[in-house]
Structures are given as structure tokens and as C-alpha cells.
Amino acid sequence: MARPTSKSRSKSAPKSPTKLKAAARSSGDAAVLARIADALERLAPERVAAPDLSGADAFVWQPDGRLIAVPHVNRVGMSLLKGIDRVRDTLVENTERFAKGLPANNALLWGARGMGKSSLVKASHAAVNAAHAKNSKDGPLKLIEIHREDIESLPELMAITRASRYRFILFCDDLSFDNDDTSYKSLKAVLEGGIEGRPDNVIFYATSNRRHLMSRDMMENERSTAINPGETVEEKVSLSDRFGLWLGFHRCSQDEYLAMVDSYVAHYKIKVGPEELRREALEWATTRGSRSGRVAWQFIQELAGRLGVALRD
Q: pLDDT grade, residue 68 (50/70/90)?
């Protein structure tokens, strides 16, 4: 009687129950792992592409890691900023040194409202770019605005700027800190004192109505509630010490206010008599209860609109 061949035996021989269970378990585990991987892929945040910094000279930082280009910066020409000659020259000189790769200081512009603090930062950036930075090997200076509420994301922004060939002015307008606000610690570590420190291609300019970036009431509250009042207040006040330049802006005189109005009228070629202009400008300041560059500009908008003059640079 002939024996069955090995081929026929292999076809008819059933798999053992143990092997069948192992194969089923392996197939099931693979399916579960695939579903978990798909779920994690959907939950993971989208990768943010590296920003293209060559397309503009000004950007606004978003805390999700994006830099939004600003094609046209809302700025006032340097020649229209009146009554701030000393601080203007100091900031422009500091910005020029930075653009040339020389040592320069972080700057805190503090003082009276509406006297041109943020306008001076933007005008200095434009003036230095026009005179020097456009032709430098590092290219034009880049102005990046970071909002006060996004200060805690400043280390992420520094990581982007540190790896770039450009030089950056980081700008925060109306910087101040309220009670129980600890985000100032992120700013302190970035400006000075952290392990990495401030990158050589970055400088920080901030404006504030407060010299020490915190209100007097907040300072008094810290003194009254702390175990060691002096040290607690000193920790928060020391933030302003990270700025090598303190540039003070004070309320303008009547003559300085009228000089601002006259410069706007001449720049935009608004036809109005000098006596009428003076009378209306002073009346406008009286109704507003203050004199400042902002009040002068608001008066010019009112005057130009009433006379049908378009305000175009």
C-alpha cells in the first residue's frame, strides 16, 4: 500500500489551536495599534511651517507659533514727532548701533499717555532701515510686535529669531503687570538672567505708562501682605532694571502742542488761517482735558474731515 506524499500530508494537516489563537491575537493587536495611531495623529497639533521672514519688515506674533506679516505699518513720520527730541535721538542711536551689530540696550519707553512712545519705536525702525539696515549684510531690521497677554510665549518666539540670519526688534506696547500676574518672570528670564540669555540678533523695546511696569497700588499691596515686603517688591521692580535705557515721556506744554498741530497742517497741506487754527486747536485740547501728540492728531483728523482734506502720506 502506497504512503501519502509529504505534499498531500501538509495540505491536509490542520493548524494547532495554539497557533490559530496566536495569529488571531497578532492580527487584532495590529488593528488596535493602527486605530490608536490614527487617533493620536488627529489629536496632534498641526506642524507650523517655518515663517518666511523675507516677505515683510514687520510681523505680529501669534502664540500658536505663527508670525503674521504686516505689509503696511501704521506709523508716523519721524519729522512729525515733536517735543521728544532727546529721547528720539537716544533711541535712534541705540537702534543704529544694534543694526550695525554693535552692543545696544533693551529700551523701556515710559510716561505720559499719547506722547508718541509707540510711534517713536515704529518711526525709529523705519528710519534706521532706510538709512542703514537695508544695505547691511544681515538685511533689514525686522520689527515683531508681541501682545502683552502673549508674553509667556516669548521663549518660543526667541527660538525662532535665534536661528535666523536677520536682526529683530521685539516690541511690546503698553506693557504692565497686575496683581497675581506671574508672566513677568518669563520676560525677566528672557531679557537677562536665563541660561541662554537674549540672542545677539534680538533687542527688546517696550512702552508703558508705568516706570516700574506695576501700579503704585500693587506695590503697596505687595508691601503690606508679604512676609518680607522689601524683597517681594524688589523682585517685581527688578524687571525694569533689565532695560538698559529708560526713556521718559512727559506732558507737553501748550507751545509744544501747537507745534505738533502746525507740523501736521503743513505736512498734509491743510489750508486754514493761523489764528483760526490756534483758537480751534486750544479749544479742542480744553474739551479733551489734556495736551499730547495723540490729542493733536485727533484734532487734525477732525479739522481735515470738516474741510474735506484726505490725509495721505
A: very high
CA distance 307 to 313: 17
The H-or-E segment that residue 142 falls in is strand 142-145
Q: Please write the tens of the pLDDT for every residue from 114-138.
A: 999 999 999 999 999 998 766 677 7
Pairing of β 107-111 and β 168-172: unpaired
Residue 77 and residue 81: Cα distance in Å, rounded? 7
Judge whether 218 and 179 are in contact, CB under 8 Å.
yes
- Other C-beta atoms lying within 10 Å of the C-beta of residue 265: 20
Q: How far is it, in rounded angstroms, from Cα 168 to Cα 141?
A: 6
φ and ψ at 301, to 5 degrees? Answer: -60, -40
Q: Which three cell numbers stand for residue 165?
A: 540670519
CA 153 remoteness from chain centre: 10
